Each structure stands twice: as structure tokens, then as C-alpha cells.
Amino acid sequence: MSDFDRNPFADPDLNNPFKDPSVTQVTRNVPSGLEEYNPFSDSQTPQPAKVKAPTAAPSTQPAIMNPTEEPSAYNEIAKEHAIAQAELLRRQEELEKKAAELDRREREMQSLNQAGGRKNNWPPLPGNFPVGPCFYQDFSVDIPVEFQKTVKIMYYLWMFHTITLFVNIFGCLAWFCVDTGRGVDFGLAILWFLLFTPCSFVCWYRPLYGAFRSDSSFRFFVFFFVYICQFGVHVLQAAGFQGWGNCGWISALTGLNQSIPVGIMMVIIAALFTASAVISLVMFKKVHGLYRTTGASFEKAQQEFATGVMSNKTVQTAAANAASSAAQNAFKGNQM
Questions:
Q1: Does 123 sit behind a cis peptide bond, omega within 30 degrees of 0 on the bond before it?
Q2: Rounded Cα distance, 223 and 147, in Å
Q3: Of the candidates 30, 138, 239, 328, which lies 20 to 30 Å from 91 by C-alpha distance?
Q4: Helix, strand, or coil here: 122?
Q5: Terminal CA-to-CA distance of the chain, rounded, Å?
Q6: What is the pLDDT of residues 280-292, one digit of tens each?
Q7: Burial of 91 (0-12, 13-18, 19+ CB in 10 A)
């Protein structure tokens, strides 16, 4: 019945909802499926047009640097491990050097023992001299390599001061020639040379030599105590008080007023005494720094002193005699 109502001359797609232009446009934009793909077709499906993203407007805010990231815990642990490993390697190298040094010294000691033992070689006196050498001194054998330079400098400092004392005798003699009232200074200059030369060698240089040779804390403390007194002597000699037997600055200025040549000679000697004082202070600080690296301490010095005293045969004999005398007196007192 509906076929009779339809207009045969009308468009058949007019009332078809699937032929609407809005619907057909959407269906044409849908990409074709695999079943509609024709590999023999020459026509290529047009690619969809690329849409440009809108460019962002330039920011007016000031630039801010992002904070650096902190290293992770793993990196810190790895770094600490590397530092600890480097420290262990450094200590191992030091121990190997010390072991090699001990081996070298032991071989040299064995060679000396095979050759007849160590013989005193200082002071170097001729063979026909009535008095022989009193000490044995060999830096390469007795002193470790890292301390040899310091000990040699201290030895040269002792020699420098000895030469200064010797020159001081001639300075006081020249002063005595222009001023007959300076005979006391000339006599004291000779006394200081004869007194300080051996005493300084025995009292502070040999303890220093023995301290570095055997790593003795007790000898270090002996050196420090005596060397402080020695530094005070250097200062007094550089000052040069009149009547003390030293051509220091005060005596040199007095000598310049009496005779210019004698005064110049005394000024040179005063400069030598001043150099001795300055070098002594510098070397004292250096030796003290080395002492702190050797592991020496006051407790070790006390132990070494007690051990040395108790092992001394003279002390043991005296203690035994004192104990026996006390026991006999106590026994006699009980009988009475």
C-alpha cells in the first residue's frame, strides 16, 4: 500500500538517513580496514594533514637554575670506599719502605759484625793519636732514610756553633787589644769554646742521634730539655752583654765606638750568633714535628727509664746491698 503513496519521480535517497551529508562525511574520514585494502590499486590514501601545535608564548618570569641533585647513597659509599682503599695502599707502601729499611740496616749490621764489629769513628783522629775515637756515627746505617736529612742538619748546626765560638775568641782578643779592660771577656770566650763544644755534642746532639736511631722516647725528652737551654744560650750570646765573653750586638756596638775594624769583626760574630739562634728555633720545631709522627710519648719515656734503671748492673748491685744492709739491721734490732 505504501508503494502507491511513493512518488516515482522523487529522489530515492532523499528520505534515507544514511545518505545524509553529515553522516557520509564522517564515514569517509574513517580509515579503511584491512578487508578494504587493495594492493593493486594505484591510488594512495591521502595522509591526514598535520596540525601544528600552538607555540607557547615566551615566559616573562626570570630564569631559575634547578638545584643540583645530591649524590645518591651508593655514590657516597663508593667514594668512601675508594678513599679508604687509597689510605690502606699508602700505609702499605710506608710499611714496605720501613721493612726494606730494616732489612738493609740488618744486612749492614751483619756485614759489620762479620768484619769485626762496629768501631768508633768519631771524632776522626789519626791512627797514631794517643786518644782514639769515642763514638760511632754513620747516618746511612743508624738513621732511617726519612730522618737522615734532619739529623745531618743538626750535626752541621752543632759544627756551625762550634766555629762561631772559635771565631768569638779572636773577636774578644781584638776587643781586648783596643780595650785592656776586656781581659775577662777574652778568658770567658776561651772557656765557652772549651765547655760548650763537647757538652753540646754529648748533651743534645747524641741524644737526638740515639732517639732517631732507636726510636727512644726517653732520649727525645732529654734532647728537648737540653736543647731549650741551648737555645737560651744562643740568645744570650747573640745579645752579647759586656763581661760575659760574647761578641754579641751590645758588645759590637761598644766596639764600634772604640775601633771601626774591631767593631765590624764583632758585628759579623754577632750575626753568626743570631743565625745560630734562629736556625736552632726552626730545627727545634721541625724535630718536634717529627717526634709527634714517631709515636713517642711521655709514658713510653717513663717505661724506658724504668727499664733502663732496673737493667743497670750498678743499680742492681746498689739495691741488693741496700736491701741486705736493711735486713741485717732489722735482724740485729730484733735480737737486742
A1: yes
A2: 16
A3: 138
A4: strand
A5: 170
A6: 999 999 999 988 8
A7: exposed
How many helices (H) and strands (E) would you count in the chain?
12, 0
Query: Exposed/middle/buried for 128, CB within 10 Å: 0-12, 13-18, 19+?
Result: exposed
The string of DSSP letters for 135-177 reads B---HHHHS-HHHHHHHHHHHHHHHHHHHHHHHHHHHHHHHHH
Task: Give residue 217's pLDDT.
Answer: 86
Q: In whole angstroms, give the CA distance from residue 212 to residue 171.
A: 37
**21 falls within a domain:** no
DSSP conformational letter for 61? S
Domain of residue 282 covers 147-319
| C-alpha 32, offset from chain centre | 84
Q: What is the DSSP letter of 242?
A: T
Q: Does a structural domain hold residue 199?
A: yes
Cα–Cα distance, 50 to 164 (Å, whole number): 100
In which residue are the cell numbers 775601633 written?
Answer: 259
How many domains, the chain?
1
Secondary structure class of 291 (helix, strand, coil): helix
